[in-house]
Amino acid sequence: SEIPTSFKPAQPMNFTAQLRCEGVQLNWTEPMYTVRPASYYVVTRRIWTGPYAGYVQTYRFEVGIHQWLDHTIQWGHEYYYTIAAYDVDDQLISHSPGVMAGWAVPPERPRLHTAQVEDTVQLYWTRPRAGTCDIQGYHLYRSSSMPSVSAFGSTSSLGSLIAELPVTTTNFVDNDVQQGDEWYYSLVAIDTRDTKSLASSPVKVSIPVIHEHLNLWLESGRTEICQGEMLSVRVYISNPLEQVFNNVRLIANPSRHITFQRSAYLRSRILPDGSIEFTLPQLPGKRTSSFEIQFQAVENIVQDTRASIYFTLRSENTVYDHDHINLIVKKCGQGQPAPYLSVQLRNLKLDPVTGRRYIVAGQTLEADISWRHMHGPYSLKVEWGDGNQEEFALLSEPRTTVGHSYAQPNTYSCTITIVDSTGKTLQSTISIEVRRE
User: Which of 240, 289, 348, 412 could form an SS bridge with 385, CB 3.0 to 4.6 Å?
Assistant: First the structure.
């Protein structure tokens, strides 16, 4: 009644509310252009959603206080806040429009993937975007039936909780599986207030049953390669039975730092999951077949990285065998390709029982030798391991073919040494088995 009717105070205090992980942060300023100074403020909080909607609480703050963190809110509810300023006689002198806040945002829904399946299940994911609060970890579930998530954050139908993982983890290996199992995996992100994200789309994994009819093994001769470098993998498939096998496929699943390049004699295609399927020719009984497949390390690595290539031998409904090679992809030099030496032996015979390759005594063994990323001219020295050696000087091309005949059955260590014009040296030692016919 003491305020002139012509005086219209501005809507004061710049009242704002911001949801934080710790609660709702309220901020305001002192009212302006009032007849009397403010003595205290009253913040009114009304629950807007949930079973307690409409419930009102008030909080008093003395003049000079311009913020309040409301950490008493319940997550999953929304609140309506208003603020009013009163003078020393408890007379209202100003008020501000109300603001809404309090509905917490959960973490983003994770995306779950399978890397490869052998006798274990390997799962991986990228860290999802945080919601109102930071992510503190993950819950991984496994079910024998297809999960159905109907309610927000519901995990009742996801199956059994098999792992509680910290936020720094982005992969998991489930070793508790058996051949013939079929599982559905789901991942849930958990924030620091234990708010759960929606579950990831379920990932179905079928553990193959391995039948010991065909045998698979690998040879690469390398455990480390540099970025951008080629890797040759020799695949051996042994058929110990009289039966002829048709329509057999070889599946190669390289990790993300290895890419498939080519295979000279096998037809290949890229599958939707990124693995490579090779169609094999007829596999005769009582014989071992071998194929060479070329891979390459990626160029853009920032540090030495572990990599692998998994191979599975299968037909339409049967898995026969699987094997893998482990590698370290090294960051060599300042992004410059590393020199390397390659040796391919010819005229070898294959033992169908052991799968070992050998040369018959008295027959000529030929070795195709090539090298890369060196400066010519080159000198080459071949020590055959039986007391004989050959030396070649001023070679202009980074490749040549040499031959040698061993007189006596034995296992010999052959050492090949390349030196370029700058003095850079490469050396490789290979084992050669010599047998009688």
Answer: 412
